[in-house]
Specification:
Biased composition (Polar residues): 183-192
Shape: globular
Largest sheet: 5 strands, antiparallel
Number of strands: 30
Strand content: 25-35%
Region (Disordered): 170-192, 360-385
Domain DUF569: 1-143, 207-348, 390-467
Distance between the termini: 48 Å
Pfam family, one: DUF569
Protein name: DUF569 domain-containing protein
Number of helices: 5
CATH architecture of the largest domain: Trefoil
C-alpha cells in the first residue's frame, strides 16, 4: 500500500515491460509499450473508511474495474474494463495492493489478481483478473508502480469528474479528510514533485549501459550510429559490424545517470550548437575531443520501453536519427520532436558488444578533467559499471503463421546465464508459459527465421530471438 500512499497518479508496468493503458473506447484496457501517453496514467483515489484499498481512475474519468464477465468461454480469466462510477459496482473498482518484494499484486474484490497476459492472440497484450495456476505465470500478476506527476489540467479534469460522480464531497479542499479523493488533489506540493522526480530516476535508461564496455546504437530506421572516417561527422548506416558502429561507454564520476560515448577514433559524441540547416531547429552532432570535456559531450539515457532516448545535458534535447530526402537522410542531429510522425526518431536500441569484465563500484565524489589535462588520460575521470551475471536475451513471440506483429517487435527481455540452446528453450517456456516452442534467429540478409541448433554466441553477447510454436504454419 505504501507504493500508493503519497502519489497522485501512477503508471503500472507489467512483467512484459508494457504499461496498463485505457483505450479511447472508454471501455477496454490493454498493455502497450507507450508509457508516455495519457492513457497510461492512472489517478489514485483512496476509499473512505478503507485504508487498505485504492481506486484507479483513467484519463477519461473511468474506473479500472474487475468484472465477472469471462474473457474467453471455458477459461478462468475474467475481463477487466473501464466503467463509470456505480454504487452497485462499488466493490469491483476497488483494488488491494499487496507488496511482493519491489513489486505489487493488485487483489480484486473476489480474491483474484490483476494479470497481464502474454502469448499468442487473443491473449497477447490482454488484461484479465485471475489466479496464476502454474509457476510460469506467477510473475504475470506482478506490477511495477511508477509515480507520475500530475499537471494542472489533470487536476481540473479529475476535480470536475469527481464533482459529478461524488456529490457528497466537501467544498473545502483544505478541510478534507486524509485519504479522501479531495486530499489527493491538494497534495500538489513542491516537496512531492521533488520525490516523484527522484523516484523516476530509478526508471532511467542507464541500466541498459551498466554492464556495457562497448555498445552499438540502432535507430528506428534499423540503421546504426556511425562515426565517419573524417573523424568529425556522425551518420546512420546499415553496416553494424564495422568498427565505426562501436562506441565505448564511459561513466561520469559523481553521477550514476550520465555517460559519454567514445568513437573508434577516440573522439566523443558531442551535441554542438551549430544548426544542421539554417532556419531549422536541429543542431549538428559531431565527434570532438575537448581539452576539457563539457556537458555537450554528456548524455542522459531515458528509458522508453526496451529502447532509450539520449538527452543532451547542455541543451535538453535528444539524439535524433533523421529520415526523408537528402540532406536529412541518414543525418544525426539533436532536437525535440514536435510532430507525432517523428516521435520515434529519438528512440535507440542498445546492443551490447563488449561487457565490462572488471567493474569497480561507482564512486560518489565528482571529478572533472583539468583544462590543461591530456585528453588521453580522461579515462581516469570515469568509473566502470558493475558486471552483469549472464547475457541479455530479447525475445518476441510469433503467431501461428510465424509472423511477429507490430506490437511485439520490440519483444521482452531477461538475463540468461547458460550457453546451451536446450537450456534456453526451457527457460523461455518458463518465462512465457508456452509449450513446444522453437527458439529462432532472424537472418539479417533476407529476414527469414531459422532455428538455433548449436551453442549460443560466446562472450555473453546480447541476443535477439523469436519464439515460434512447433505447430506454426510459417516457413523457416
Amino acid at each position: 500500500m505504501e507504493s500508493f500512499n503519497k502519489v497522485q497518479a501512477v503508471r503500472l508496468r507489467s512483467h512484459l515491460d508494457k504499461y496498463l493503458v485505457a483505450d479511447d473506447d472508454n471501455q477496454t484496457v490493454r498493455q502497450s509499450r507507450n508509457g508516455t501517453s495519457r492513457r497510461a496514467k492512472w489517478l489514485v483515489e483512496f476509499v473512505e473508511g478503507k485504508s487498505h484499498v485504492v481506486r484507479l481512475k483513467s484519463w477519461n474519468g473511468m474506473y479500472l474495474t474487475a468484472t465477472d464477465l469471462p474473457f474467453l468461454l471455458g477459461m478462468t480469466g475474467k475481463k477487466v474494463l473501464q466503467t463509470t462510477p456505480d454504487h452497485s459496482y462499488e466493490l469491483k473498482y476497488e483494488w488491494e495492493p499487496i507488496r511482493d518484494a519491489f513489486q505489487v499484486k493488485l487483489r480484486t474484490w473476489c480474491g483474484t489478481y490483476l494479470r497481464a497476459n502474454g502469448g499468442t492472440p487473443p491473449w497477447r497484450n490482454s488484461i484479465t483478473h485471475d489466479d496464476p495456476h502454474t509457476s510460469s505465470t506467477q510473475n504475470w500478476v506482478l506490477w511495477d508502480v511508477e509515480p507520475v506527476e500530475v499537471s494542472g489540467t489533470d487536476l481540473v479534469v479529475d476535480f470536475l469528474s469527481m464533482r459529478m460522480s461524488l456529490s457528497s464531497l466537501s467544498d473545502d479542499v483544505s478541510g478534507s479528510e486524509p485519504g479522501s479523493p479531495m486530499s489527493v488533489i491538494s497534495t500538489n506540493s513542491p516537496r512531492l514533485s521533488s520525490k516523484l522526480k527522484s523516484s523516476n530516476k530509478f526508471r532511467s535508461g542507464i541500466d541498459q549501459f551498466y554492464n556495457a564496455k562497448v555498445v552499438r546504437l540502432r535507430s528506428h530506421h534499423d540503421k546504426y550510429l556511425l562515426a565517419d572516417e573524417d573523424e568529425e561527422s556522425v551518420t546512420q548506416g546499415r553496416n553494424g559490424s564495422s568498427r565505426n558502429a562501436k562506441w565505448t561507454v564511459e561513466f561520469l564520476q559523481g553521477s550514476q545517470y550520465i555517460i559519454r560515448l567514445k568513437s573508434c577514433y577516440n573522439k566523443y559524441l558531442t551535441a554542438s550548437d551549430h544548426p544542421f540547416l539554417l532556419g531549422m531547429t536541429g543542431c549538428k552532432v559531431v565527434q570532438s575531443l575537448h581539452p576539457k570535456l563539457e556537458s555537450s559531450a554528456e548524455w542522459e539515457p531515458i528509458k522508453e520501453g526496451h529502447r532509450v532516448k539520449l538527452k543532451t545535458r547542455g541543451y535538453d534535447k535528444f539524439l535524433r536519427a533523421n529520415g526523408g530526402v537528402p540532406p536529412w537522410r541518414n543525418s544525426i542531429t539533436h532536437d525535440i520532436p514536435h510532430r507525432t510522425v517523428t516521435q520515434d526518431w529519438i528512440l535507440w536500441r542498445v546492443d551490447i558488444l563488449e561487457i565490462q569484465v572488471q567493474s569497480p563500484s561507482l564512486k560518489s565524489h565528482p571529478s572533472q578533467p583539468l583544462p590543461d589535462e591530456d585528453p588521453e588520460s580522461i579515462d581516469s575521470n570515469v568509473s566502470s559499471p558493475p558486471k552483469l551475471d549472464g547475457r541479455i536475451i530479447y525475445y518476441s513471440v510469433a503467431d501461428d503463421n510465424g509472423d511477429v506483429d507490430d506490437e511485439a517487435v520490440e519483444g521482452c527481455s531477461f538475463t540468461f546465464k547458460g550457453n546451451g540452446v536446450e537450456e534456453l528453450t526451457r527457460k523461455m517456456e518458463e518465462e512465457t508459459g508456452l509449450e513446444g516452442i522453437i527458439v529462432c534467429n532472424r537472418n539479417p540478409l533476407n529476414g527469414k527465421l531459422y532455428p538455433l541448433r548449436l551453442q549460443l554466441p560466446p562472450n555473453s553477447a546480447t541476443m535477439h530471438v523469436v519464439l515460434v510454436l512447433s505447430s506454426s504454419k510459417g516457413e523457416f
